[in-house]
Amino acid sequence: MTSPGVPDELDRLWTPHRMAYITGAEKPSGGYDEPAGCPFCRAPEAPAETSLVVARGETVFAVLNLYPYNPGHLMVCPYRHVADYTDLDPVETVEVAEFTQSAMRVVRAVSSPHGFNLGMNQGSVAGAGIAAHLHQHVVPRWGGDTNFMPVIGRTKVLPQLLDDTRDLLAEAWGTTA
Ligand SMILES: [Zn+2]
Q1: Which of the pair, 28 or 64, is modelled with greater confidence?
Q2: What's the 39 CA to ligand 1 centre distance in angstroms?
């Protein structure tokens, strides 16, 4: 008979969702720059359960980052595939701002962060992973949320699965935003 094994004294972090990123399995053949391969163009069209979209506005939407820095790391994106902040029209500019405020209210209501980082990386050289489609990061911060894991191990520990975070925030957006 096979023994189920005796636990040792090490804790394990299981991160199977990282494998697609590590292997590049999800990267489209044409890259991310064209709308056909752009995750921010595709997200609003995907089924609600898989898209990680938390809220939809007239010209912008809020979506969870697939590779979050912290739990609840949201991005506010225009539906239009534009790269530069100056490409936004006046309506989009206002709605990006309003959605950023709503994202902060919702994440505060759900998970009481101590602070936020807000911002846009404009261009690959500035750190944008998907430079062709503008996105405003809303990253909740907690005291002590940067520890040895990201600094030494280049690994971020996330205690909640993305689908669960999405459901939580989408529900709160309806009542809080
Ligand atoms: Zn796009």
Answers
A1: 64
A2: 6
